[in-house]
Amino acid sequence: MRDLQWRGDIPIYDLLDQYSGRRLAYYVSEIVPLAFDSTLARKLGVSRGTVGLMFVEVGYDQNNEPLVHATSYFRDDLLRFRVIRRRSGA
Fold first, then answer.
1. How far lies 87's CA from each of 75, 82, 84, 90, in Å?
2. Which long-range contacts (CB under 8 A, 24 or more apart) does 68-73 make?
3. How far is it, in rounded angstroms, from Cα 12 to Cα 79?
4. Given this model, what pLDDT does residue 14 score?
5. I want to staple 41 with a disulfide (CB 3.0 to 4.6 A). Which of 3, 6, 36, 80 is the partner?
6. What percent of the chain has pLDDT over 70?
7. What is each CA distance from 3 to 14, 20, 69, in whole angstroms?
8. CA–CA gap between residue 69 and residue 16 (Å, rounded)
9. Share of the chain above pLDDT 90, in %
10. Beta pairing class for 24-35 and 66-75
């Protein structure tokens, strides 16, 4: 693998293709609500104990092999999900 000199402006998909020869095919994400501790709260500009979301993600290549792992934190007021659930057979 060549030496990596990432400038911060290359999408991770391109970076992985170019430097590892492996293609990121999909992520499996676990979304977990949590109360931010002092450190996270300060970084996110909220009060300690504010409830937010944590994403724990594993990215897999085309052979279903793990390629990347990431943990991200989001303020609840900046990220929302809407889920549509239907009856089976509907």
1. 31, 17, 10, 5
2. 68/12, 68/16, 68/24, 73/36, 73/40, 73/43, 73/44
3. 21
4. 82
5. 36
6. 90
7. 15, 11, 21
8. 13
9. 57
10. unpaired
For 1, 9, 53, 88, 89, the CA distances from 56, given in Å and listed in that order, are 27, 23, 10, 29, 32
- Predicted pLDDT at 76: 85
Question: Of residues 1 and 7, which shows the higher confidence score?
Answer: 7
* Residue 25: both structure tokens together: 């095919």
3 has pLDDT over 80: no
Token reading at 46: 């909220």
